[in-house]
Write a structure and sequence with these properties.
The protein is of the alpha/beta class. It has helices spanning 7-21, 66-79, 87-90, 94-107, 118-129, 144-156, 170-184, 207-216, 239-242, 273-282, 284-287, 294-309, 311-330, 350-362, 392-403, and strands at residues 30-31, 38-42, 48-53, 111-115, 135-139, 161-165, 190-195, 220-224, 252-256, 267-271, 342-348, 365-366, 368-370, 380-385. The protein has 2 domains: 23-53 and 311-403, Aspartate Aminotransferase, domain 1 (Alpha-Beta Complex), CATH 3.90.1150; 66-309, Aspartate Aminotransferase, domain 2 (3-Layer(aba) Sandwich), CATH 3.40.640.10. Strand 2 and strand 3 (48-53) form a beta hairpin. Residues 117-119, 143, 145, 195, 199, 224, 226-227, 256, 258, 267 line the site of pyridoxal-5'-phosphate.
């Protein structure tokens, strides 16, 4: 008797077929070499083609920096692959402490703690720090890990009040804060959480006004600055530095090591010692899951060291961003204005965004198109991401290819 398809297999096959039919099936490119301004893309027929990469978060060009690579190799030799344990049992290596001290120093806060990803770090925050009578107020465009962390807090800590405000709508935030404060009482904890840089718009949170409101309502400001760290501000400290705000003006940071800071993987929480310590004591991702590999901790530590020692790298990124935005606009495209390294080119229809990104790849330019349901219907875009590693001819080649669309 032949085995019939299980209900799960049947359902999965059906879903994939429907995605294929709607042309929404993602195809994953394979890169055959290190990340950099030029990448080697393996083709379905096995051959390899070079393309200019404008879709990585390798903002500072550190993903394949020789010192970042060497630091990882050295840690692998010194510590082996890992501890085969979670951190509170026997899973903390010296490079974890070194990295965490450097991250805290970079942000100008008391303490930091690393995780295998920012997703994990964020998931550690609300289910751990929120109590059933607290309120969490979130921007509608916040990253999926923030949304899921809040949802999980709602499940684990039944009774947590959740509020959402329109993207960067300060009046809306003020109204939610007033509601939340009335609901939780004078001593209840209120969290206001935002991305520092919104990844689809390339826009930034209005942190000074948010800080002022949080102070007025005695709320705690939590910022996930994954796209801001290493990018925003004169020395790349993040979105708060862009506004000349000290690190301590943010009550708790989450961030990634998987973008500007080396690009391998890993994330962190950073802020007051007490909040970090409670997360170390209580957060389920730290109690039940292994540490960041020492190789990655050492590479990320080197990346942060380079960021702090070479402000010229951040300046080069800022110059590239300004040049790319100017040239894309001069070529007649509608590029959203902002100081971030994310330059979305609005092309409206999803099909057009997908067709353009396919055509650009044929021309040797690797840019991803985002459409519905990732962004609202009619707002499809190509998301161009700029790096300090790009040189002017790379940007000119991007614009040259865009002109042929
Ligand atoms: C990219 C990103 C993440 C995910 O980071 P990982 O370390 O890859 O889990 C989390 N939050 C924000 C805002 C991001 O942009």
């Amino acid at each position: 008797m032949s085995r019939s398809m299980s209900p799960l297999d049947a359902r999965n096959e059906k879903l994939l077929a429907s995605l294929r039919e709607k042309r929404e099936l993602k195809s994953l490119q394979t890169i055959d070499g290190p990340m950099g301004p030029v990448v080697r893309l393996r083709q379905p027929d096995g051959t390899v083609r070079e393309a200019l990469c404008f879709c990585s978060n390798n903002y500072l060009g550190l993903a394949n920096h020789p010192e970042v690579v060497e630091a990882g190799l050295k840690a692998l030799r010194d510590y082996g692959a890992g501890t085969a344990s979670v951190r509170f049992i026997c899973g903390t290596f010296t490079p974890h402490h070194t990295l965490e001290e450097r991250l805290a120093q970079m942000l100008g806060v008391e303490a930091a703690y690393s995780f295998v990803s920012c997703w994990n770090a964020t998931e550690a925050v609300f289910p751990t720090l929120a109590e059933p009578t607290d309120a969490i107020i979130s921007d509608e465009l916040n990253h999926a890990c923030i949304i899921d962390s809040i949802r999980l807090a709602g499940v684990i800590r039944k009774g947590v009040h959740k509020f959402i405000y329109r993207n960067n709508d300060i009046a809306g935030l003020e109204a939610r804060l007033a509601e939340a404060r009335a609901g939780v009482g004078p001593d209840g904890v209120i969290f206001v959480v935002t991305d520092g840089v919104f990844s689809m718009e390339g826009s930034i949170a209005r942190l000074p006004e948010m800080r002022a409101l949080c102070t007025r309502f005695n709320a705690s400001l939590v910022v996930d600055d994954s796209h801001g760290t290493g990018v925003m501000g004169r020395t790349g400290r993040g979105t708060h530095e862009h506004y000349d705000m000290p690190g301590r003006s943010v009550d708790l940071f989450t961030g990634t090591l998987g973008k500007a800071l080396g690009g391998a993987a890993g994330g962190f929480v950073a802020g007051p010692r007490s909040a970090v310590d409670v997360i170390v004591q209580r957060a389920r991702p730290t109690l039940f899951s292994n540490a960041l590999p020492a190789t990655v901790a050492a590479s990320a530590d080197k990346a942060v060291e380079i960021l702090m020692n070479e402000p010229g790298r951040v300046a080069r990124l800022h110059a590239n961003v300004a040049s790319a935005r100017k040239k894309i606009r001069e070529a007649g495209f509608d590029v959203l204005e902002s100081p971030t390294a994310i330059c979305p080119i609005i092309v409206h229809e999803t099909a057009r965004a997908i067709a353009m990104s396919r055509r650009l790849l044929e021309l040797g330019v690797y840019v991803i198109g985002f459409g519905y349901p990732v962004v609202p219907e009619g707002h499809a875009r190509l998301r161009v991401q700029i790096s300090a590693a790009h040189e002017e001819p790379h940007i000119d080649a991007l614009v040259g290819a865009l002109k042929r669309m």
